[in-house]
Design brief:
The chain has 4 helices and 9 strands; from the N terminus they run ααβββββαββββα. The chain has 245 residues and is an alpha+beta fold. The chain has 2 domains: 76 residues; 156 residues, Protein Transport Mog1p, Chain A (3-Layer(aba) Sandwich). The strands form 2 sheets. A 7-stranded antiparallel beta sheet has the order 3-4-5-9-8-7-6, sandwiched between helices. The chain has a two-stranded antiparallel ribbon with strand order 1-2. A hairpin with a 2-residue loop joins strand 6 and strand 7. It is elongated. The N terminus is likely disordered.
């Protein structure tokens, strides 16, 4: 008679089932552990990406602010620009720029410039004689000073006319402009050191400052009328004046 198979005991079946559940639990734990690790890495990467994005945004804002500041600085300190026509017209001329007193002008290369501190006082002496001598017989000047708030152009011109050497025999007086600024123009004649002189002055007030532009020359020095000789050049100098806002 054949023997019957011997079956597993109940104890072994329970132990086997317990081992299977334990293995499944360990596997599940490992999976959860890796999921947590992956989640933390993802959060860290996302946080770093956000920080970089914020940093990039801040940098962009700073860059924009810097650009705006640069533009403001450029607007506050403009330079003389020339059209093609002016470039040809003023070919060979020099440019005088004073950022502090806000005035820009062109002058011929052959003229001599002198400048004082304090209130701006710039003088351009006319070209030297054939012998190389620089005379004071032809002068273009720019004078700028601060004026009290509320100072009117008419009152300033009236005061200037009452100063020493301010008055002469007025030949012409009219309203004009320097750039877009209203101005007063006076032409007069006077005598100094026994010689006759002719003088053109233009006044304007802008941004709390009074600007005086003058062209003075002898009309008979050694038989030469220097005023007429260089008047066209003086007109070009005046035409090149810029007083920025």
């Amino acid at each position: 008679m054949a023997d019957k198979p011997v079956g597993e005991t109940p104890v072994k079946k329970v132990e086997r089932k317990r081992n299977i559940w334990m293995a499944l639990a360990i596997a599940a734990g490992v999976i959860v552990f890796f999921m947590v690790i992956v989640g933390l890495v993802a959060v860290r990467l996302n946080s770093k990406s956000t920080d970089q994005s914020q940093t990039a945004t801040t940098t962009t804002k700073k860059s924009t602010t810097t650009t705006d500041d640069t533009n403001i600085n450029q607007k506050s300190t403009p330079s003389i620009t020339q059209s093609a026509e002016d470039a040809e017209k003023y070919k060979g001329w020099q440019t005088y720029e004073n950022q502090s007193w806000r005035v820009f002008v062109r002058f011929p290369a052959g003229w001599t410039k002198t400048e004082t501190s304090g209130s701006l006082n710039v003088v351009f002496l006319g070209p030297p004689t054939a012998g190389g001598v620089i005379l004071n017989e032809c002068v273009f000047g720019i004078f700028v000073k601060e004026v009290p708030a509320g100072t009117t152009l008419d009152s300033y011109v009236h005061t200037a006319q009452t100063q020493p050497m301010g008055g002469g025999t007025v030949a012409e007086q009219m309203e004009t402009s320097v750039g877009e600024s209203p101005a007063v123009k006076i032409m007069d004649t006077y005598s100094d050191v026994g010689a006759p002189w002719k003088r053109l002055r233009i006044w304007t007030i802008k941004n709390g400052r009074a600007y005086t532009f003058s062209y003075t020359a002898s009309i008979n020095y050694g038989g030469t009328d220097y005023y007429t000789l260089h008047s066209a050049t003086a007109d070009m100098i005046l035409a090149s004046v810029i007083i920025p806002d």
